[in-house]
Amino acid sequence: MISALVVWLAVSSTGNLTIRELETTGQARLALYDSSLRAAIDRYRYLPYVVARHHQVIDAISDPQSAQIANFYLERVNDRSGAAALYVLDKTGMTVASSNWNTPDSFVGEDYSFRPYFSQAIAGNEGFFFGIGVTTGRAGLFISNSIRQNGAVIGVVVVKLELDELEMNWQEGGETVFVADADGVITLTSRGDWKYRTLSPLSDADRARIVRNRQYSGRDLTSLNVGQQLAKGSGIVTISSQRFLFDSKPIRGSDWRIYYLTSMDQVTDRQAAVMLIAIIGGGMIVLVILFLRERELKLASQREAREFERIQALNTRLEEEINERRRTEEELRGTQNELVQAGKLAALGQMSAAIAHEINQPIAAIRTFCASAKLMIERGKTDQLDQNIGQISSLTERMGAITGQLKTFSRKSTGVLEAVDLKIALNNALQLLSPQLDSENCTLERHEPETPLFVHADLVRIEQICVNIIRNALDAMENSSVKRIRIDLSSNRNDVVMRITDTGPGMNDETLSLLFDPFFTTKDPGQGVGLGLSVTYGIVRDFGGTIKAYNTTTGGACFEVRLPLLRDKKT
């Protein structure tokens, strides 16, 4: 009786211990598979949004004759990105341009209005749909975004991702993992015989909808009948007479769910071994326990070594993807810095007339004092030269201050974020703009607290924000009888707030909605390229802040910039 109890306790405890170990390992493996899948998707998720805003794509919708230009553009972008296909649909769902326009499987001219990703994007949402391609017969993930013109949706951009390489890596890993969509259809799996099987039988309505969408054409979608077992999220499931320990989690940003399964054979094998050892060594319970512990430690060490190698390989792949993402971000950040520098140089060019006038005045005065000094020398009145020389020295210092401001403003940003007093940045910008303010007879009002207002930013780019907004205000007041700019600086518990208000005519609703879009401008051709406020928006967002524009009750416009307040300057 005691021997039977010992055997039962040994078998039971071994099974429980093994299950806990497998659960811990399964959770870690599930997290890695989830990360790799999301990384593969997120790498392309931005692409439809960016392409939908390109003028060549918008032109292809508005003017079918320009579709070939869009074909070339989509082909270049798709080749660089590595996606399976990139194509554009008009408002009816007809393909007007595609990256594979010159292949036998070209999407151009195909009607995809029946696909859910089209209706989702037309409604203004991001489309996310997995299915078998009706043209190529190859399965893939379709991500879509709407094309807008003047606020209205005029078409859809779609990128298709083929996840075959990811699925092949899963199969080579020798583990059991799969992804099911909202209908319970297995879309990605390391088990080829489970692909396009369902977790539970589909209802007639669901099956009809899938057929209508032509989502899994030619697939029977037979059921594994495990939906109720898997509904708990984790536990034990029996599939085709084989028992698995499983864990699952939803995939963020989609209606998919990923499952990781571990065979229960390991548990059964260990329990059988323990039972055999317990029966044979019934009289040697202590020795058996010591032996089992040593064996468990060795097996655990071997499993950890194998797991470490697999995890290390996955980490290496993830690290490569992260490095690639970082390189892309660095390139984008470098592009933004170049735009900031170009904007500063353009601003200097547009202010050159006022700055030249500011420098010409002391030059003319120096000439006058020099002529006067020459006459004094000729007449022998050298005792009066000190005053003339002092005036000339003062004027040269003034010219040096002006050129020093130009040199300081034109320098490139270091990209290092530090504690910056917004009041000092505003002072630097106003010193540079003072000649233009004077030449346009613009009155400046400043209202600010006496204490510093520190933000975590870059001084050069903060100055660029101030210069861009104030110059915009000057341009807006070109035809105003009264030119006045009011600058209000304040802070609350979390933010530093800068409001710059002008006495111009204000802006209409369409201008307000497109104000921060790249290349949007209300100026005449040749007067601006529409990048100043777009760059300003990007800088503010990089600093964790927000910017908005609105019309005041008195008729002018106001730009409001909010940046996080840095309470401790040392941090």
Task: Give structural attributes.
alpha+beta; ATP-binding; 16 helices; 571 residues; transmembrane; elongated; 17 strands; nucleotide-binding
Overview of the structural elements:
This protein is of the alpha+beta class and 571 residues long. It folds into four domains: 2-45 and 165-321, 2-Layer Sandwich (Beta-Lactamase); 47-162, PAS domain (Beta-Lactamase); 351-411; 412-571, Histidine kinase-like ATPase, C-terminal domain (Heat Shock Protein 90, 2-Layer Sandwich). 51% of the residues lie in helices and 19% in strands. The protein is built from 16 helices and 17 strands. It has helices at residues 2-45, 47-51, 55-62, 67-81, 116-122, 164-173, 204-212, 227-230, 265-280, 285-350, 352-378, 385-410, 422-439, 459-476, 509-514, 532-542; strands spanning 85-90, 95-98, 127-132, 139-149, 152-161, 176-180, 186-189, 234-239, 242-250, 257-263, 418-421, 443-447, 454-457, 484-491, 495-501, 546-551, 557-564. The chain has a five-stranded antiparallel β-sheet, with helices on both faces. The protein has a five-stranded antiparallel β-sheet with strand order 7-6-10-9-8. Helix 1 runs antiparallel to helix 9 and helix 11 (352-378) crosses helix 13. It is elongated, with a radius of gyration of 35 Å. It is a multi-pass membrane protein. It is found in: Cell membrane.
Largest sheet: 5 strands, antiparallel
Structural class: alpha+beta
Strand content: 15-25%
Strand order of the largest sheet: 2-1-5-4-3
Instruction: Determine the CATH superfamily of the largest domain.
Output: PAS domain
| Helical residues, percent | 40-55%
Membrane topology: Multi-pass membrane protein
Enzyme class: transferase
Subcellular location: Cell membrane
Coiled coil: 301-345
